[in-house]
């Protein structure tokens, strides 16, 4: 398992293709997401802390859009309730293959971790089992906007009383000056992490049609429409935030 630096966008491309979670992205993903998402390590580790808080014995914990399983690993570091199991789901075959390797490596290093099943599947077609904790860590923004409400309704209905959804997303802002300020700060974060103007511009073009962020107000409204009873922001850094939604 080699972790390469993300140089995917550092040479000029005649046409920048739409971003997909393919082999090339998988190879550099840990470096890419850490250098692109302000607060990512804090969000991942504390999703484990939240999971321990909300997990109930003998229930399932879901990591939806698990990529290489960073959140699953954090859940396994923090949750030790009896009879719990993690189900990690991603529809990228390349991600799922590498995720299984990462989790096998974690199993080889630590004893008594929660059992985990990694599914290559579309989370929009999943039959959810009763669950105490669902994590959507930077996944909803890649789901077609018209399908987001149905997905959240399915999650809300599967959640046990006192369970929780942890939803982390990039945000857009309705106030143009707020939007510009927080986006500028995100660009400053990327530059501080070594990305060039070319890399930043080409990445923006690659994700602009496939990753569509909502505002905090849209998230709140949609979560309440899906049946959630409480929505709380527990973390924000620039234009990236994480919310707890209670069923
Ligand atoms: C930004 S990454 C998530 C990062 C990951 N949760 C983490 O914390 O490291 C988004 C992931 O969602 C997956 N994804 C997007 N749409 C999906 C769908 N409909 N079903 C399953 N996975 C999906 C992608 O393949 C990708 O791995
Ligand atoms: O907003 C950006 O510029 C990003 O690069 C964000 C983002 C994300 O939030 O998922 C986009 C794609 C990669 O998965 C890593 C980071």
UniProtKB/TrEMBL annotation:
Residues reported to bind S-adenosyl-L-methionine: 40, 65-67, 90-91, 122-123, 137, 204
Name under which the protein is recorded: Carboxy-S-adenosyl-L-methionine synthase
PANTHER family with a match to the protein in the record: CARBOXY-S-ADENOSYL-L-METHIONINE SYNTHASE, TRANS-ACONITATE 2-METHYLTRANSFERASE-RELATED
Family: Belongs to the class I-like SAM-binding methyltransferase superfamily. Cx-SAM synthase family.
Name of the encoding gene: cmoA
Pfam families listed in its UniProt record: Methyltransf_25
Subunit structure, as described in the record: Homodimer.
Function according to Swiss-Prot or TrEMBL: Catalyzes the conversion of S-adenosyl-L-methionine (SAM) to carboxy-S-adenosyl-L-methionine (Cx-SAM).
Domain of life the protein comes from: Bacteria
Keyword set includes Endoplasmic reticulum: no
UniProt cross-references to InterPro entries, sorted A to Z: CmoA, Methyltransf_25, SAM-dependent_MTases_sf
Enzyme class: transferase
Entry keyword set: S-adenosyl-L-methionine, Transferase
Residue ranges annotated for the Methyltransferase domain, each copy included: 63-163
EC number, as in UniProt: 2.1.3.-
Catalytically driven reaction(s): prephenate + S-adenosyl-L-methionine = carboxy-S-adenosyl-L-methionine + 3-phenylpyruvate + H2O
Organism: Denitrificimonas halotolerans
């Amino acid at each position: 398992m080699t972790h390469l630096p993300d140089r995917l966008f550092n040479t000029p491309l005649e046409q920048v293709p739409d971003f997909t979670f393919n082999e090339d992205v998988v190879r550099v993903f840990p470096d890419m997401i850490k250098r692109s998402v302000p607060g990512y390590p804090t969000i991942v580790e504390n999703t484990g802390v939240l999971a321990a808080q909300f997990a109930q014995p003998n229930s399932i914990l879901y990591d939806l859009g698990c990529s290489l399983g960073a959140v699953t690993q954090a859940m396994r570091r923090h949750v030790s309730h009896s009879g719990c199991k993690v189900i990690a789901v991603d529809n990228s075959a390349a991600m799922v293959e590498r995720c299984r390797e990462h989790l096998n490596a974690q199993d080889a290093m630590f004893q008594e971790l929660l059992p985990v099943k990694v599914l290559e599947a579309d989370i929009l077609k999943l039959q959810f089992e009763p669950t105490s904790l669902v994590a959507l860590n930077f996944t909803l923004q890649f789901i077609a906007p018209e399908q987001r409400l149905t997905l959240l309704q399915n999650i809300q209905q599967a959640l046990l009383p006192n369970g929780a959804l942890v939803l982390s997303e990039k945000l857009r802002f309705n106030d143009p000056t707020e939007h510009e300020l927080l986006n500028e700060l995100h660009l400053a974060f990327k530059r501080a992490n070594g990305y060039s103007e070319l890399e930043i511009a080409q990445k923006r073009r690659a994700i602009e049609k496939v990753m569509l962020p909502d505002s905090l107000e849209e998230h709140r409204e949609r979560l309440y429409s899906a049946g959630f009873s409480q929505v709380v922001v527990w973390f924000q850094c620039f234009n990236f935030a994480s919310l707890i939604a209670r069923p």
